[in-house]
Amino acid sequence: MRSHLRMHEQKSFYKYMTFDTALAVLENCSLRWSSPLIFNDPFDVPREVMSNVTSDKISKSLVKLIINELKNPRRDLDELHSNIKNMIIQFKTMFPQGIPEELMDKFDSIMGNPPIGDGAEQSIDDFKIIWESMIKRMRILCLTINPAITSMWNHYADHYSGVVLEFSCNDELDSAWLIAEPIIYSNDLPHTYSADGMAHLLFHNEKKSIKYLAHEITYLKTKDWSTEQEWRISTYDSVSSDNLFSDLKFHPLELKSVILGPNFKNENFDKLLELLVKYKHTVIKTAEITAQRNIAINVKV
Questions:
Q1: Which of 16, 116, 117, 300 could bond 156 through an S-S bridge, CB–CB 3.0 to 4.6 Å?
Q2: What angle do helix axes 101-112 and 55-71 make, rounded to 10 degrees?
Q3: pLDDT by residue, tens only, the chain of 301 residues
């Protein structure tokens, strides 16, 4: 029966790792979910937000968006922040034939020197503190849909001598990976990096902006990383601690296979078999480098 948690049609996900890491994973039946603060890509989830962004810059960008909306109002105002939506409705009521040109000229003059509330700078500082706390508590599990990526075998699996673990998306067990989402690879800066981006968040529907900050921003990476075909699951640590990771359990039935790297050391095989005793349905496979200079996955005989 299909789980109510399922958000995609993937049957399996894969996790590349060294042999020593695999021993720890299999021994404890757990995977490490990490804060972005210890990710290997410094351009991943932003470590800090609104660097070199001031309330003056945000206000100018926000006023520009509002004035453009007044000049060219959209039909569906539900996309906008509730305060801005109400303001647009008021102007439409006051000026059903359109806003007078002389008033528009005044708006244009405001754009260069917008009014800024006394607490604006403090609000920015407060948000930075909130973000710092959020990113420490974020817990992200990074997976991939492809077990035959040569660069990942080299980088994450100890130069082809490690393993890849295959985890099945088990509907009966409500597997955590049923809610995994694919990474969006884009070289566009996240909204939190610029005044225009922050103005965009302030301009639009509150729920949409909160979802972006609390969730969507964790699924953005630059195109340089697109070969990894990454999917992620994100959550938050419910226990306040100084650790930047959490080791979360998985069910033994979720481990579908263990794929040995092309350079896997034979002397490590017995250690692996000992730990796989409790994973009765797990199949052992091998990754082999072919004459076509790619990797083929086969069931170990």
A1: 16
A2: 160
A3: 899 999 999 999 999 999 999 999 999 999 999 999 999 887 788 887 777 777 788 888 888 888 888 878 788 888 888 888 888 888 878 877 777 777 777 666 665 666 555 556 676 777 778 788 888 999 999 999 999 999 999 999 999 999 999 999 999 999 999 999 999 999 988 888 888 888 888 888 888 888 888 788 899 999 999 999 999 999 988 776 788 999 999 999 999 999 999 999 999 999 999 999 999 999 999 999 999 889 999 997 5
Quote helix, strand, coil % in the chain, to nearest 5.
Answer: 45, 20, 35
Enter the DSSP assignment of 261.
-
- Residues 68 and 88: their CA atoms lie apart, in Å, by 11
Q: Residue ranges of the alpha helices (H) in the chain?
A: 19-28, 55-71, 82-94, 101-112, 120-137, 150-156, 195-203, 206-214, 269-275
Place of tokens 């100084």: 242
> What are the structure tokens assigned to 271, written together?
């250690």
Residues 12, 13, 18, 22, Cα dihedral to 10°: -60
Q: What CA–CA distance (Å, rounded) separates 39 from 280? A: 33
Q: What does the alpha-carbon distance between residue 260 and residue 7 come to, in Å, rounded to a whole number?
A: 29
